[in-house]
Amino acid sequence: MDKNTEQETAKTAKSIDEQIRDALREAQNAFTSQKTTQENAGTSPGNEPQQTTDPEAEPAWFKKYREEQARLYQQLRNDNEAMKAAKQHEEQKAVVAATAQRLGIPNYLLPHLKVDVEGDVEQQLTQLKQEMVNHKLLTLDDQRNHNATRSFIENDAEEWAKGIEH
User: Fold this and answer.
1) DSSP assignment of 32-101, as one string?
2) Which of 102, 131, 99 is nearest to 115 (CA)?
3) Residue 72 contacts residue 65 (beta carbons within 8 Å)
4) pTM, whole model, 2 decimals?
5) Residue 85: is its pLDDT beyond 60?
6) How far is Cα 155 from Cα 64, in angstroms, rounded to an integer?
7) Residue 10, SS3?
């Protein structure tokens, strides 16, 4: 190669390098202007809202999700409290029924009794039974017969169980 060809090749290489630099500058300028336009418009490509630099701000989808989760959590808490209250009510009814049965108060009266379960259930039912006896709604003979019948049934059941074992 001669000297002129080398010089022309060097000039061409310089011009190619300059062309690349110019293209990069143009691309950077275009990118910067596009970024500025998007920031001013508040949207990113695809028309999605631009995330703000505020750390306290939440995206709209997350806010909706958080509200839904809060609603579900509150509903679960309410259901749980209702179930606990129903369970406690059933336990209190069982305590009253057991105490009434032990004292000999007829089962048909239980739905009509208003017993303060926070107070002494035994004392309240004992007073009720005494009032029933005083007003001749329940006699001591009925109570004794009830207990005698009950003990008779229990003894009979024990004898029957012993007979099965032999």
Assistant:
1) HHHHHHHHHHTEETTTEEPPPS-TT---HHHHHHHHHHHHHHHHHHHHHHHHHHHHHHHHHHHHHHHHHH
2) 99
3) no
4) 0.44
5) yes
6) 68
7) helix
